[in-house]
Amino acid sequence: MSEKKIAFIGAGLIGSGLALNCITHGIPVSLQTRSKVDLCRSRMENGLQFFIDKKIISEEEAEKARGLYTITTSIEEALQDVFMVQESGPDSVELKHNLVAEIEKYVADDVIIASSTSSRSITEVFEKAAHPERCMGGHPYNPSYLIPLVEITKGEKTGDAYVAKAKEIYEKMGKTPVVLNKESIGFIANRYQSAIHREAVDLVENGVCSVEDADKALMYGVGLRWSVVGQFLSLHLGVAPEGIGSFNEKFHVDVTQPDYRLSHMPTWTTFPAQWCEHAQAGLEEAIANRPEETGRDIASIEKWRDDMLVETLRLHDML
Questions:
Q1: Pick from 26, 40, 159, 235: most CB atoms within 10 A?
Q2: Tens-place pLDDT, residues 80-105
Q3: Distant-in-sequence, close-in-space partners of 317: CB < 8 Å, separation ≥ 6
Q4: Are β-strands 82-87 and 5-9 bridged in parallel, bridged antiparallel, or unpaired?
Q5: Where are the beta strands (DSSP E) in 90-183?
Q6: What are the CA-CA distances from residue 61 to residues 24, 58, 81, 234, 240 (Å)?
Q7: Which helix (H) or strand (E) holds 72?
Q8: Distance (Å, whole) CA 172 – CA 144
């Protein structure tokens, strides 16, 4: 019998990125793509070369990793001898229902099925599954080959034993999984991101600051701090020496009254009609002001971003 592996059904940026994590940690994988076999292989090879260039793995380790993946256009073929399936198809509930039904035709009843959906209800995604107890959300973050986070989300019928097993598997892939105890649309990180997104758009649209300065305030202020200690621990340190339990007392927060800052923040749920065009213009100006070595187009900025992420992960001793 072949060695058990993880199947990635839908091997785009997310699927191929997670597959890179697997093969560089000794876990065999199969990648299924509808038609873009050459593109998928190119992503895998470019990813391995990036890891070599950054001295994350050696040439010998990369060669070993190359022997741990296969690419196919057949779902049935990809699902042979698997212990876990990561579904990363289009974020349509109807399409995911069809994919889950197809997956369940070919895998054993206890094989974990995780969906990469970023915005759909896990209960809804798996509502037609024959074995929903082994189904869950497994939402990675882009670029998935570098960002450690995976958000594991339970549906109404997901079993805790399967969640514990999935968490262990993601950890073996080199990821940092977090578990949501109940469903929340947008999970954790995308809820943070959505709140910040609305605030950033509102600040720019109301002329408070430029696109460039909105990004700088995040990068060189709270974002820099969050990358080290997160939100709750940051507040805890900010109330030194007493700690967060004394926050309201120290900062004279009257919990019977609306918070002054929150009362002046946007609450709209429909984006301004022209925000994309305004952001595009602001970004073009900001990108033109960037030092050349940090990139002045999407491809070069992505490369610089990945270089910076590698150095940040090394500071966290995660590479």
A1: 40
A2: 999 999 999 988 999 999 999 999 99
A3: none
A4: parallel
A5: 112-115, 135-140, 149-154, 176-180
A6: 7, 5, 24, 38, 46
A7: strand 69-72
A8: 15
How far apart, in Å, are the Cα atoms of 21 and each of 79, 160, 213?
A: 19, 25, 34
Other CB atoms within 10 Å distance of the CB of residue 45: 12
CA nearest neighbour of 138 among 157, 156, 159, 153: 153
How does DSSP classify residue 107? S
In the structure encoding, which two tokens stand for residue 239, read together?
């109330």
**Beta pairing class for 135-140 and 149-154:** antiparallel
Do 91 and 118 form a contact (C-beta atoms < 8 A)? yes
How many residues does the structure list for the chain? 319
What would the two tokens of residue 196 be? 């910040």
The kind and range of the H/E element at 32 are: strand 29-32
CA distances from 87 to 74, 115, 145, 270 (A): 14, 5, 16, 30
From the DSSP assignment, how many helices (H) and strands (E) are in the chain?
14, 8
Q: Beta strand 29-32 with 69-72: parallel, antiparallel or unpaired? A: parallel
Q: Give the whole-angstrom CA distance, residue 136 versus residue 154.
A: 5
**pTM, rounded to two decimals:** 0.92
